[in-house]
């Protein structure tokens, strides 16, 4: 078994900076943190760098190609919030160390004609991302309009390999489709209760304050978005905090909805060198469906939630390289999101936690998200010190998934 020791690098272990420490990996695992490099180890001496846990994107819609792109940016795990990469469908992905690992909700519970149908042009098939392999059973589309239907879909979703259960709570107002069919409170309550009875983590798509209240009232565990239809109030922040709910703000998505794309990010040579033309074009574009939104309000809400002690997770909502879903790119946008979190007022260390240890803890991914003995050797090595300068996360020197160095 080959043993690698990374020496001379600062270590951020997912929670805190540890200072300079030796990290030893073997057999796909971290086997030692601190101390001396073993005599038989191949040594990578890397002064001036920082070793981090591989990043986790807590909100994507993905494919093999997108998972490959994510890994090039040091994102070693993507959490799909609607898509086909459920447990029985991903053997060919989970065993491939040249792409990021993935977990998936399968499809979200929504009424027929409900979100996200309004995002796609007529005839577009969101269930079939380009490159998706037709392996495993066809995806289960859990269209529900009654409490009985929603509750009945939960065990079927679990059977189809969902890792967590997603609920869409969206009346279309933010996407320019007011009156979109939406889960009512009773249906949402019944679905969430059923999921919890089955021991499943529950996540809601909510873009407005009202939808956020509905999800919390139903007993949701986490929010896959942050509301963007107005400034926060003390009341809504207290409600989120008191419920112990985590939030994946996806500031990059809210910005894109307001017409603010990722052009500046795409101009960064550290990003440009990793994107093909389709992703470059998409990243420079935007959803642009809610130009009346105020990004400053979103950033202030992020800050208020952080100050209240709410767990924040870095997510992007990156999906396909299409201009109408633009402003986002797999991997790259996780770095962009951390920059936004710092702009909102989080410390760089808080932003790094949001993309590593906090996400692993809230999703029960006990084998990753931190650098500690016995955990997966999912690692990112960067020049500089992102614990003080968040932009340094893009100074990517090396990426390991499961102990395998990308490109080796
Ligand atoms: Zn999404």
What does this structure look like?
The chain is α/β, with parallel strands linked by helices. The chain folds into two domains: 1-53 and 368-408, Urease, subunit C, domain 1; 55-126 and 135-366, Alpha-Beta Barrel (TIM Barrel). The chain has 14 helices and 17 strands. α3 (147-159) packs parallel to α4. The longest helix has 13 residues, at 147-159. The mean pLDDT is 95. Residues 59, 61, 81-82, 317 line the site of zinc ion.
In short:
It contains 14 helices and 17 strands. α3 packs parallel to α4 (185-197), α11 (295-307) packs across α12 and α12 packs across α13 (348-354).
List keywords for this structure.
Urease, subunit C, domain 1; 4-stranded mixed sheet; 408 residues; TIM Barrel; single chain; alpha/beta; 6-stranded mixed sheet; 30% helix; binds zinc ion
Assembly category: single chain
Average pLDDT confidence is 95
Number of strands: 17
**Structure annotation, total helices:** 14
| Coarse morphology | globular
Bound molecules: zinc ion
Q: Which segments are poorly predicted (pLDDT under 50) over 5 or more consecutive residues?
A: none
CATH topology category name of the largest domain: TIM Barrel
The termini sit apart by: 16 Å
Q: Strands of the largest sheet, in order across it?
A: 3-2-7-15-16-17
* CATH architectural label of the largest domain: Alpha-Beta Barrel
The amount of helix comes to 25-40%
Class by SSE composition? alpha/beta
CATH class of the largest domain: Alpha Beta
Kindly estimate the percentage of residues that lie in beta strands according to DSSP: 15-25%
Biggest sheet features: 6 strands, mixed
CATH superfamily of the largest domain: Metal-dependent hydrolases
Rg over alpha carbons: 20 Å
Domains, number: 2
């Amino acid at each position: 078994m080959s043993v690698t020791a990374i020496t001379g690098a600062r270590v951020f272990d997912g929670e805190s900076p540890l200072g300079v420490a030796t990290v030893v990996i073997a057999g796909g695992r971290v086997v030692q943190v601190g101390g001396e490099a073993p005599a038989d180890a191949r040594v990578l001496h890397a002064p001036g760098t920082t070793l981090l846990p591989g990043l986790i994107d807590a909100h994507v819609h993905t494919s093999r190609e997108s998972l490959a792109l994510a890994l090039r940016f040091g994102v070693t795990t993507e959490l799909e919030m609607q898509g086909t990469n459920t447990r029985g469908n991903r053997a060919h992905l989970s065993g491939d160390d040249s792409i990021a690992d993935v977990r998936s909700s399968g499809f979200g519970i929504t009424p027929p004609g409900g979100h996200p149908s309004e995002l796609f042009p007529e005839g577009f098939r969101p269930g079939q991302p380009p490159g998706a392999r037709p392996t495993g059973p066809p995806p289960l589309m859990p269209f529900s309009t009654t409490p009985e239907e929603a509750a009945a879909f939960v065990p079927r979703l679990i059977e189809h390999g969902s890792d967590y259960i997603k609920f869409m709570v969206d009346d279309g107002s933010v996407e320019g489709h007011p009156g979109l069919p939406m889960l009512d409170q009773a249906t949402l309550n019944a679905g969430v209760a059923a999921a919890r009875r089955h021991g499943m983590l529950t996540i809601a798509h909510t873009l407005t304050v009202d939808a956020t209240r509905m999800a919390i009232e139903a007993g949701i565990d986490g929010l896959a978005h942050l509301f963007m239809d107005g400034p926060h109030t003390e009341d809504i922040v207290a409600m989120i905090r008191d419920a112990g709910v985590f939030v994946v703000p996806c500031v990059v998505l809210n910005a894109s909805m307001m017409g603010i794309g990722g052009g500046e990010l795409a101009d960064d040579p550290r990003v440009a060198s990793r994107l093909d033309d389709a992703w470059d074009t998409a990243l420079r574009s935007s959803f642009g469906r809610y130009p009346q939104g105020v990004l400053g309000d979103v950033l202030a809400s992020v800050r208020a939630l952080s100050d209240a002690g709410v767990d924040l997770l870095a997510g992007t909502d990156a999906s396909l390289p299409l201009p109408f879903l633009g402003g986002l790119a797999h991997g790259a946008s996780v770095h962009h999101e951390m920059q936004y979190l710092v702009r909102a007022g989080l410390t760089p260390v808080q932003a790094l936690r949001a993309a590593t240890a906090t996400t692993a803890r809230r999703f029960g991914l006990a084998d990753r998200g931190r650098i500690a003995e016995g955990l997966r050797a999912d690692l990112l090595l960067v020049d500089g010190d992102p614990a003080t300068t968040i932009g340094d996360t893009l100074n990517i020197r090396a990426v390991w998934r499961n102990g395998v160095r990308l490109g080796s």
